[in-house]
Amino acid sequence: MVHSTTGRRLQRIAIYGLFAVIALYTLFPFYWMIASSLKSGQAIFDVTFLPDLKFNNYKVILSDGVFLRSLLNSFIVATSVVALSLGLAVTAAYALGRIDFAGRSPIMFLFLAVSMFPQIALLSGLFEMIRWLGLYNSLGSLVFAYMIFTLPFNIWVLTTFMRSLPRQIEEAAIMDGCSPLRILRCIFLPMMGPALISTGLLAFIASWNEFLFALTFILTDENRTVPVAIGLISGSSRYEFPYGAIMAASTIVTVPLILLALLLQKYIVSGLTAGAVKG
Amino acid sequence: MSSLDLINVVKRFGELTVIDGVDLDITEGEFVVFVGPSGCGKSTLLRMIAGLEEISSGELRIAGNRMNETPPAKRNIAMVFQSYALYPHMNVERNLGFALETARLPAAEIRERVTKAARFLQIDHLLDRRPAQLSGGQQQRVAIGRALVRQQKLFLFDEPLSNLDADLRMEMRVEIARIHREMKATTVYVTHDQMEAMTLADRIVVLKEGRIAQAGTPMELYERPANRFVASFIGSPRMNFLPGTLTQDGEESVLTLFGTPHRLPAHDYAGEVTVGIRPEDLILGGGEVTLTADVLLVEPLGGEALVHLNVEDGRSIVVKVQGKPDIRPGATTSVGWNHTRANLFDKDERALSRKGA
Amino acid sequence: MTSGPMRIGLKATRARTAWLFLAPSFLVLFAVALWPLGRTFLFSFTDAFLTQPDLYDYIGLENYFTLFEDPLWWQSVRNTLYFTVISVSIETALGLAIALLLNARLSGRGALRAVILIPWAIPVVVSARMWQWMLHDQFGIVNHVLKLMGFIDHGIAWTADPDLVMPVIIAVDVWITTPFMVLLILAGLQMLPKSIYEAAAIDGVSQWRQFTALTLPLLAPSIAVAVLFRLLDALRMFDLSFVLSSNSDDTKTVSIYAREVLVNFQDMGVGSAASAAIFLMIALVTAIYLTVFRLNRKLLGA
Fold it and tell me: Residue A39: its pLDDT value, please?
């Protein structure tokens, strides 16, 4: 008996050791990013594990109007994408999840197929469409383009969720004289809180992080989003690369996402798995 | 109050016919119960009346007007669901008033009607609660209240008590009977519980495989079941069935049971029959027909007792007796009944009537 | 039939509502996905230039010939496939291992689950920058630590050395996307019925046998779905390579190649041909994957 408890304890220690290794592996790059961002000037080139707590890099990056502007742009794009894709997806999901009509399965399949399209395959056609809509080099082009990966996914997840809502509640609402729109607004929407948070969060993160379209459809600095801004920062030579500023900018973009990920972990996970389980 | 007419109503799901030509007239103020085993179509029929299922063919009339294509909310009906279907994010008050809110009634009137219904159902102290904070019985009251508030002419109940435990079920049964007595609204009530049907109904409609097996008052169904299915469905414990043959002998009929002939009043039928006798109509010691039987088991229920017997071909029957019978398992006894208490069914399981009756 | 021709049934009304509710989403997806895809295919048969996309002539398959004669295209195809196969394999194995670890009922696993989510949640560009800095040949922490430990004398040029840059990109991708695998596999693990493990334990089945005979087969569908998602994602990889090793031919993916031709060279025809080829390639991989998976399932089921 004594032997087996020691064995168990060893096993536990081993597992916690692995936990620690994984956590270190995952988190150290972030620590290093933040530590580097807090070193000023030449200090960044000395490898010291403790930061200096100098905020020079932040001052530089925040006094740069272009970076602040791109932060704002990212926020505008991401929130607009969330609002638009959720608004569209909720109504579509009601149709697909609650109404039995001919053509439902092919449409579900079509939406699923669209969500698998590689973005690059649409680039030239989308380029033309965005020019035609007069959205080139505007934030609108990104809000529009991001529908490709947010809308089908949201429809898919919300449809699954919608299907799980009790049928009799909807029937009670029908008997109470509700139109489909009123059922959606007054009965189902309030019941869908968790699913809306999940899909909204994932849409926000995806839009906040997107790079290819943001790089291609935006020409001028003042309309860029944050990932492109960071991706395009460069020094006059390889040795003058402003790593301090880049790390500061990266920290600023990352912190809200880390907070979202930590606080709303549950919703992110349920959204991700809801999207995948059905595949 | 509203009358309700079903005229040759049919429901098909693809190849499957679920409701196969139902004709029924329900008069104003009547309390009608649809009863039958699961899958008999009783809920589907109710949902067709509500407008939640489309009618494949036939006609539905409410107060004389065709309603087949009328949306549910415009049929002047209120419905109570098995799962209560309360809106989980609204408090009791909003749940009760939601239909009126949807119909854009003035706030003062909504409040008045909600208060009245809540008081009537003794849930006025719960108005601020959410459904999740209520017991099953309270939720059921809110569900009924939601129907009452709308002051409709026709009430539909879809197995409203089946999610409640036995005590509450009895209490709510009494409550529903009280509501019907006071509101006098035409009511259609679906249940699989024949006891609920017997106690609540003015008229019971027994459904089997999408058709009406029999419709009539509880006592009619109990006393004169039209077929073996209704006979076995209504009454608890179930009616006993014994196989026999019926032959004609002049002005009389002869029923042969386990090789022994018994003389009966005349019937218009000869051939194989099933004799059905209710447990409470069997007499220990014998009657106009008497069989011998072995006592299998005695179940005392307090005021009465159930005696399980094995008759001659090993078939088991149940006798209900008052008090505690002085009889033991293993003993041999005789058991019988009087002709008027026996139901005869032909080989198509239809009830036989006496000549001239 | 009693219902007259003018009367609209309840079911028909519901169906009309459904189409009405679907219309806006349908329209948006048509404009943003289906139409552009069709136009991409169309442009791939033309000599259009990005500056004047309205002026074009049909030139048949010429763009495809140009594309297939370009060794750089084939190199980017090789790069993409190599990256996809290696990174998805590692991520699946690692993801499965971490998921099994996290499935153990231990305190602190919730916190760890939250922690591993972070690399996935942040922009790939930021991850690329972060690792670029850590892997810097002169000032990077990785070289510093390796030097301290005595493994190397001189800093390694991780992202400049043609032999190292692809492994580095794969390593960073593993860091970024393993959490995604972990979460999906963990969700699958948590759906497995507990009772079969109790039954197996009572029957004296060893832990290893429980894993190979119960967990793996039952988990296969979850893993398969997660792998498909990753596969689709890896095949269209763009940003990581673009930022970490911008102009290196050794890490050029098909997405980078297509965008380069389209945007930098403004050659809409060849760029569209490359895009269309990528679309077909990914569709083909998906189809093969799904067929193999389904076949496997059938074989296992039989």
Answer: 80
Is pLDDT above 80 for C119? yes
C15 and C76, same domain (yes or no):
no
- Residue pLDDT, tens place only, C218-257: 888 888 888 888 888 899 899 888 888 767 788 889 999 9
Question: If interface means Cβ-Cβ distance under 8 Å, which residues of chain B face chain A?
Answer: 50-52, 71-73, 77-79, 81-83, 85-89, 98-99, 102-103, 146, 150
Average pLDDT score, chain C = 84
φ and ψ of C34, to 5 deg: -70, -50
Give contacts of A 131-150 with B, CB under 8 A.
none
* Maximum mean pLDDT: which of A64-73, B319-328, C30-39: C30-39
CATH 3.40.50.300 placement within chain B: 4-232
Domain containing C139: what range?
67-301
Give B71's contacts in chain A (Cβ within 8 Å): 174
Q: CA-to-CA distance for C91 and C83, rounded, in angstroms? A: 12
Condensed to tens digits (0 to 9), the pLDDT of residues A2-32 reads: 456 777 788 778 878 888 888 888 888 888 8
For C206, how many CA atoms within 13 A lie in the half-sphere containing its CB?
Answer: 3
Chain C residues within an 8 Å CB radius of B12: none
- Residues of chain A above pLDDT 70, percent: 89
Q: Are residues C91 and C4 in the same domain?
A: no
Q: Give me the pLDDT at residue C299, please.
A: 60
Phi/psi at B40 (5° precision): -85, -10
| DSSP letters spanning C75-102 | HHHHHHHHHHHHHHHHHHHHHHHHHHHH
Q: With residue A30 as reference, give the H or E element that holds it.
A: helix A2-37
Quote the CA–CA distance of A118 and C235 in Å, as a whole number: 8
pLDDT in tens, B95-123: 999 999 998 999 999 999 999 999 988 89
Inter-residue contact A195 to A114 (CB < 8 Å): no
Please, which residues bridge with residue B267 across strands? B354
Burial class (CB in 10 A: 0-12, 13-18, 19+), A266: middle
The domain B4-232 is placed in CATH, from the list 3.30.450.20, 3.65.10.10, 3.40.50.300, 3.30.420.270, at: 3.40.50.300
Is C28 inside a domain boundary? yes
Neighbours of chain A (3+ CB pairs under 8 A): B, C
Q: What is the pLDDT of residues C204-229, one digit of tens each?
A: 778 788 888 888 888 888 888 888 88
- To the nearest 10°, the Cα dihedral for A168, A172, A178, A179? 30
Among the CATH numbers 1.10.1040.10, 1.20.140.10, 2.40.50.140, 1.20.1070.10, which is that of B237-345? Answer: 2.40.50.140
Per-residue DSSP letters for B12-29?
EETTEEEEEEEEEEE-TT
Smallest CA–CA distance, residue C22 to chain B, in Å, is: 22
pLDDT tens per residue, range A232-266 = 876 544 556 678 888 888 888 888 888 888 888 87
Binary contact (C112, A19; C-beta < 8 A): yes
Task: Check if C51 contacts A (Cβ < 8 Å).
Answer: no
The CA distance from B71 to the nearest CA of chain A, in Å, is: 9
C279 at A interface, C-beta within 8 A: yes
pTM beyond 0.90: the answer is no
Please tell me which of the candidates A127, A205, A230 has its beta carbon nearest to residue C121: A205
Q: Does C11 touch chain B (CB under 8 A)?
A: yes
Asked if the Cβ–Cβ distance from B71 to C8 is below 8 Å, we say no
- Which chain B residues are within 8 Å of C11, Cβ to Cβ? 54
More confident: B309 or A242: B309
Whether residues C114 and C250 fall in one domain? yes
**A contacts of C119 (beta carbons < 8 Å):** 26, 29
Neighbour subunits, B (≥3 Cβ pairs < 8 A): A, C
Please give, rounded to a whole number of angstroms, the shortest distance from the CA of A225 to a CA of chain C.
11
Residue A261: its pLDDT value, please?
80
Q: Provide the residue type at A34 as one letter.
A: I
